[in-house]
User: Fold this.
Amino acid sequence: MRLPNMSSNFLLAPIPENADFFSIRDIKLAVFGASGVGKTAMIVRFLTKRFIGDYETNTGNLYSRLMCLEGEQTYLQIQDTPGHVKMEIDSAPVPEILRCLQWAEGILLVYSITDSKSYEYVRHLYQHIRKVYSDSKIPVILVANKGDLLHVRQVSSDSGIQLANELGCFFVEISTSENCQGVCDVFQYLCKEINKVQTSSSGERRRVSIIPRPRSPNMQDLKRRFKQALTPKVKASSTVA
Ligand SMILES: Nc1nc2c(ncn2[C@@H]2O[C@H](COP(=O)(O)OP(=O)(O)OP(=O)(O)O)[C@@H](O)[C@H]2O)c(=O)[nH]1
Assistant:
């Protein structure tokens, strides 16, 4: 059975009571790659630490979460991009991919070591990134996923290193199914790189204001208020008697 994708709201962490809502760091990153390379699995592994076998084909979900990164409260947004989009080197990227490219501050380019076409796909994608960011620098990490499936490997580690050298970006080979730490390291490293770029361009980290949602009263709260409202009356009536 294929599980549905988890919605971004489901993954939104509860806002801590004492959070400083006006000085929260803001990071936006996007995960690109061909269909089936494990983009959704990676994001969910990072956010929940769990590996869930199967997902609906992703059409572009946005995951958001408050988390502590490098000792600071951070509002992290991760865009999962659709992998079924055709990617040609000479044609312009389709609007949904272009929007994600322009929105992101850091990019994970994912291919599967079991699928040489997915390797070519990221090469094309990178050409589009260079066009969008022709005069600015955006941190990119090339990720070779499904490192546990060595018996059906189609792309060697050397090919991954070679592509990363060509593209001038970081490279890592991981297995989302077998190594949670490897996945977390990738996301955390990218966040650090984004942070460096933000700090060097503006002198300080970008921040957002998050206004906490008003809480809906729960039963305990209602009972307490009801008791409070009753208490003086009871006292008053007992005094009269
Ligand atoms: N063996 C193995 N399977 C993996 C790994 N990562 C993901 N998968 C499996 O690969 C399949 C595709 O994973 P998804 O996360 O749905 O891939 P996707 O890139 O989001 O695909 P689209 O939604 O079509 O764009 C699922 O069956 C996952 O369980 C891995 O590291 N090892």
About this structure: Confidence is low (pLDDT under 50) at residues 1-14, 234-241. The radius of gyration is 23 Å. Residues 22-220 form a domain with the Rossmann fold fold (CATH 3.40.50.300).
